[in-house]
Design a protein that fits this description.
This protein has seven helices and ten strands. It is an alpha/beta fold.
Amino acid sequence: MSAPARFEGPGGALLDGAPPRLRFDASTEFMARFVRAAPGARAAEPACGSGMLSLSMAKAGAREVIGTDVDPAAIDAARANAARNAVAGVEFVEGDLLDPVAGPLDVVAALLPHRPAPRPFDRRFYGGPDGTDLLLALIAQARARLAPGGRLYLYVNSIANPHRVRAALDEGFDATVCGERKRYFTREEFDALTPGLHAHILGLGARGLAELGADEGGSFFTGRVYEAIKR
């Protein structure tokens, strides 16, 4: 087994000893810079994977954090990471998005699968034909479970119908973009995930259903961290 990976969050460093397929990625670490869970907050991380955002919120002072995932291996890994890092006040439960979590909540933070694709593929990435299936479901759940003034932090790449996502956030939230990063991609990278993915995403861009760009570094989309405050 490979050595644990070091995760840098606002509550301090954490070690992620999950199997490589379940470990945090650069997007998760980028998002953690912007997630704020005030001392005493009750928080949730849907699709928690190895649990880094959950553990980071608990270390920052949240009194209770609930991480959920549909993959039992992810739940096992997240629980092991809680023990590895000696973080208390965190519970990891198997379930879909916020289904296992009762309100009211003060914070919801999530980086969900939201790759658009012409057909279902690996559930760690697939988000429906335009990438928004899980994003829209979570936004609706968060709107129902967050207390007034509660915050939803959501990482969304601009290949997942950004206009549709923003319209959903604007229904019941005051949403702002608190962080952006370029994410370069290639045909080979996308088509290795599922055949035809690259062409599908270019087609979404041509129809105004994805935002793509290009510069001297190559083709890119934009990763955005939204902070949405419930009205």
